[in-house]
Specification:
The protein has about 425 residues and is α/β, with parallel strands linked by helices. The chain is about 30% helix and about 15% strand. The strands form four sheets. A six-stranded parallel β-sheet has the order 5-6-4-1-7-8, with helices on both faces.
Length: about 425
């Protein structure tokens, strides 16, 4: 739980070199020849500003490390240069970019920092030892600082050199963003105000099955949409036509159908929006009153009756967790279900937590980004945290304070609604 984490409230950073792990994996605008590459969306940089500015104001000598893209070795197109330049504009101060991640030059630059100054290391994913959590890389990173702060929740499920390995070699703490994530998700998993309603969607069930089973024990209602509803419908004996329904998802869905706790309702679509193909030329669109998809058709969104039913569940909830769209939101005819869910969440006075990249994209596109209590910056990290797994990047921060991993969160007592 949040109280077990060592945070930046617990450490003295004045005149100390602080290695800050941030999530600056942002989209870039590849400019014409001769023009500088620019940041296309700075939401992740903005999210880290609270920690960055607080550490600077408290006199830290700040060394920032992040990954960017999926480089295969050193790729100049994925340099941190545009990120450093953008951060400099946001802070109004110089941000020096080190030419490498480790070595004599970055170490000299870190030692010459004055209190409040910022050094950004080059893309940590250029280092072959990053994803393998190479102890030599972790030790080299530790030489650059006196203290380690992790503010990258989105990578906390990965035991990488810059997210877990270095934290064993320095005093460490959680930044404001990571601590806020853990607090918001703990409120869902440990002590939600009830009724707790969970809305789960997205294309595939496979990566979310542990989350589904967890919420079937924890929540009062679990509402399923998106492509991941079809294995459940097929497991109930419905025909799914050409809808997305991988064979390997059928058995997990069958097991999950029997896993609901005594006070939990599993809600599946009762009407669907169909098309012949999943592209802009797939017209005509057909509303199916029922859940049996005819041959040659595919379900691409929940239907209006189902959207209304899920919205009613949200309206009656005290806590709502939403992860994943209800349909193919990149195709305008199939965004209505997701829009209805987003609108219901924006309108409720309940505590609302949303997660996942597509969910965040949908909220932004509908102009509702700031109408949720908390929008998680994690994708897989959010799924794994709420599924009850200990994340390496968080576990090491708990150990830094002498805490063992927490016990599994309590489920709803039988009969409680």
């Amino acid at each position: 739980m949040l109280g077990e984490l060592r945070t930046i409230d617990d450490v003295d950073v004045e005149d100390r070199r602080v290695l800050l792990r941030a999530d600056f994996d942002v989209p870039l605008i590849q400019a014409p020849a001769g023009a500088p590459v620019r940041v296309a969306d700075d939401a992740r940089i903005q999210a880290a500003l609270a920690t960055i500015q607080e550490l600077r104001l408290r006199g830290a000598r700040l060394v920032i490390i992040s990954g960017l893209g999926r480089p295969q070795g050193h790729d100049p197109a994925l340099s941190m240069r545009p990120v450093a330049d953008h951060l400099a504009k946001l802070t109004g101060d110089l941000v020096v970019l080190a030419p490498a991640v480790t070595g004599r030059h970055p170490r000299d630059l870190s030692e010459r920092l004055a209190p409040g100054q910022v050094l950004m290391l080059e893309n940590v994913r250029f280092e072959p030892g990053e994803m393998g959590n190479d102890p030599r890389l972790a030790s080299a990173l530790a030489e650059l600082a006196d203290l380690y702060v992790n503010d990258d929740f989105g990578s906390a499920h990965r035991a990488h050199a810059s997210t877990e390995g270095v934290a064993h070699r320095l005093p460490c703490a959680a930044g404001r963003l990571l601590a806020r994530e853990v607090g918001a998700l703990n409120a869902i998993a440990y002590a939600p105000e009830r009724p707790l309603v969970t809305i789960l969607g997205g294309a595939m069930l496979g990566g979310k099955i542990a989350l589904v089973r967890r919420f079937l024990q924890l929540a009062d209602a679990v509402c399923i949409g998106g492509g991941m509803c079809f294995p459940f419908l097929a497991a109930q004996g419905h025909s799914v036509g050409s809808s997305l329904c991988p064979h390997e998802d059928l058995e997990p869905a069958r097991v999950a159908l029997t896993a609901a706790g005594p006070g939990c309702r599993l809600e599946l679509p009762r009407d669907l929006l169909l098309a012949k193909r999943d592209d802009e030329e797939s017209m005509p669109v057909r509303v199916l009153d029922g859940a049996d998809v005819p041959d040659g058709w595919m379900g691409l969104d929940i239907g209006p009756a189902t959207a209304g039913r899920y919205a009613a569940e949200i309206a009656a909830a005290a806590t709502v967790f939403w992860y994943g769209p209800m349909g193919r939101i990149e195709l305008a005819p199939f965004a209505a279900g997701t829009h209805a869910i987003a609108g219901a969440i924006a309108s409720t006075p309940a505590v609302t937590v949303a997660g996942g990249g597509e969910t965040a994209m949908a909220l932004r596109s509908f102009g509702l980004r700031h109408h949720v209590s908390h929008l998680s910056s994690g994708g897989a990290a959010t799924l794994e945290f709420l599924a009850g797994r200990e994340l390496p990047g968080i576990q090491v921060l708990r150990r830094a304070r002498g805490h063992e991993p927490p016990v599994r969160p309590p489920m709803r007592p039988q009969g409680e609604i």
